[in-house]
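Exercise: predict the fold of this chain.
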Amino acid sequence: MSDLLKSLVDVSKYEEEYRLKYEAEVSSWWESLPQNQREFAFYAVVSRIYKAEIVEHKSYRGVLYDTFGFDPGFYMDGMNCGYMTLHNSIYTAEEMHNLRDRELAASNVKVITNKTVKEI
């Protein structure tokens, strides 16, 4: 195995160990909170995500850096906890309508809205 490949494997192992340790620490912290503090934390995080994602349509970095005030060092932690996947799965209403219209068009279905009839 080349030195570069060995180094990449070592870094990958380190990152996984870090992720597992961090996840255990966060889980332990969460479990130690009284119910009302868990509710406050949940509300604070979800309301900020809602505003940033749905109202302001921010990028992944925009949510991490601007909304939450994290520095770039938190980028991977956001990925590790699944936030990037969640961020990428959120569609606006317009995007959902466009997706629906494309799917229907693929089946040669007319799209009827309250404003117009579109032949697709």
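Check your answer against the key: The helical segments are 3-32, 35-55, 60-67, 75-80, 83-89, 93-106.
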